[in-house]
Amino acid sequence: MNIPIEYLESLKRRGIHLGLGPISRLLERMGNPQNQYKTILIGGTNGKGSTSAILASILVKEGMNVGLYTSPHLCDFRERIRINGHMIDKDSLDDLIDRVRVSATEDVTYFEYSTAMAFLYFYLCKVDIAVVEVGMGGRLDATNLVSPELSIITNVSLEHQQYLGPDLKTIAQEKGGIIKEGGVCVTADKKKNVISTLEDICLKKGAVFYRIGRDMRIRRSSLGSFTYYGINKCYKNLKLSLPGSHQVGNAALALAAIDILAQKGVVDIGDASVKEGLGDVRWDGRLETIYSKPRIVVDGAHNPAGIATLGKFLANEIDYKRLILIFGVLRDKNCAGMLKIIAPLADHLILTRPKEERASMPEEIFPFISKRGNCVEIIEDSQEAIERACSMAGEGDLVCVTGSLYLVGEIKKQIAHGADPIF
After folding, report:
1. How far apart are CA 29 and CA 7, in angstroms?
2. For the stretch 146-185, what's the b/e string if a residue is b when 16 or more beta carbons lie within 10 angstroms of its beta carbon?
3. DSSP secondary structure string for all residues of 77-92
4. Whole-angstrom distance, CA of residue 22 vs CA of residue 109
5. Which residues contact 166 (CB under 8 A, 6 or more apart)?
6. H-helix or E-strand containing 101?
7. Pairing of strands 348-351, 234-238
8. How far, in Å, CA of 358 to CA of 332, rounded?
9. Which of 75, 284, 301, 403 has a CB 3.0–4.6 Å from the CB of 327, allowing a cystine?
10. Residues 7/1, Cβ–Cβ less than 8 Å
11. 104 in Cβ contact with 10 (< 8 Å)
12. Closest CA to 129 of 64, 85, 215, 194
């Protein structure tokens, strides 16, 4: 196998491995490139990708050379590794795969290999700072080998219980593993058991603990703007380009990070950079409109908490006559919990299957909503599902695709490759 990207794809067969042994030894053989620049580490259940994108956008506007590492990708692996908003180019990606392969003398997973590539690329590009999104959990995630200026934990909900533990407290402990000795942690979570768990971790590690809503506050105006009141900074009359009122909470976390960086003397971001960064940020696959007639909105919500946020958006923040919902999910997700929230909003529901080995068959999902009767149909092929939805949609109707980032990526590719969503 000579083509680098094919080699990288082959690593998916190794599955998921939570543990820092192999990746720490790989990075050591590479000279620990992740220690050569400043980092911010962002974990949590939902919103960590959006928070990362917002923060990186602000830092770029200040003129810094900024790396951004996120996962998973939607359409192209290169989305995961960015410098100043630009995806890594294909030649550099191939070169990186080959470079890391020289040092990979023991088995590492697809995600571990990808993380090593990102850390090396940021070093080679001489970034000033890298914004790094945690993959799964935190304590044993490959990204947790950085020494961040601060750790952000957006929120904690039940997810990946087979890997992270059976209850909220255990999962919070895993996610709190990104808090460093003598470090700084900020969260937007409000759940008492999550807060107490993170507070305990910070106390044991001598870390400073900040909370949105206590130490930093957001005040929304009736005109759609908001003001941030922080520990040292106050930013007024801000507007965010990302759709969905919940994104203001993610913006608050990004602004808290800016606030803390200034307090630590790392960088003092100007008001103009903050406003431009918030106004220009993009984050694909989250409440993203990818076609106008009919209107097609895709959202990568893949757990009940994320689906609940999507449900609030559909109920309160967007107008439509009928909702045609396309839903596909991976087998390790809480499908029943997700459908309980979102299915009642749909006038017509199409169950489909992402082209992913771990995806649930529509027939496995159907029993959760079989009582809906004639307004539910099964179309396993996602391209046929979007064709069917668009053929049904009339003037003013909305087609929404959700349940999996893998499904969202497939639909985005299909729309991008055709002049018309009916194909």
Report:
1. 20
2. bebbbbbbbbbbbbbeeebbeebeebbbbbbbbbbeebbb
3. GGGGEEETTEEPPHHH
4. 9
5. none
6. helix 90-103
7. unpaired
8. 7
9. 403
10. yes
11. no
12. 64
Find the helix or strand (DSSP H, E) in which 316 lies. helix 304-316
For 270, the token pair is: 């100007």
Helix runs in 30-78, H state only: 48-61
- Residue 234, helix vs strand vs coil: strand
Instruction: Find out whether 88 and 119 touch, Cβ atoms under 8 Å.
Output: no
Other CB atoms within 10 Å distance of the CB of residue 2:
5
CA 12 to chain centre: 20
In angstroms, the CA 179 to CA 137 distance is 12
- Measure the CA–CA gap between 68 and 324, rounded to whole angstroms: 34
For the chain, first and last CA: distance in Å? 35
Q: In whole angstroms, what is the distance from residue 341 CA to residue 309 CA?
A: 10
Q: Could you count the other beta carbons within 10 Å of the beta carbon of residue 36?
A: 14
Residues for the chain: how many in total? 423
Q: Are 130 and 37 in contact (CB under 8 A)?
A: yes
Is residue 404 helix, strand or coil?
coil
Cβ contact 323:375 at 8 Å: no
The contacts of residue 238 (CB under 8 Å, 6+ apart) are 225, 226, 227, 228, 251, 274, 275, 278
Structure-token pair, residue 361: 């068959």
Q: DSSP letters of 140-166?
A: TSGGGGS--SEEEE----S--HHHH-S
Q: CA 239, CA 338: separation in Å to the nearest integer? A: 30
What is the C-alpha separation between 78 and 97, in angstroms, rounded? 12
Q: What is the pLDDT along the chain (423 residues), one digit of tens a residue?
A: 447 889 999 999 898 888 999 999 999 999 999 999 999 999 999 999 999 999 999 999 999 999 999 999 999 999 999 999 999 999 999 999 999 999 998 999 999 999 999 999 999 999 999 999 999 999 999 999 999 999 999 999 999 899 999 999 999 999 999 999 999 999 999 999 999 999 999 999 999 999 999 999 999 998 889 999 999 999 999 999 999 999 999 999 999 999 999 999 999 999 999 999 999 999 999 999 999 999 999 999 999 999 999 999 999 999 999 999 999 999 989 999 999 999 999 999 999 999 998 899 999 999 988 676 669 999 999 999 999 999 999 999 999 999 999 999 999 999 876 545 444
Q: What is the residue whose two structure tokens read 């980092």?
A: 39
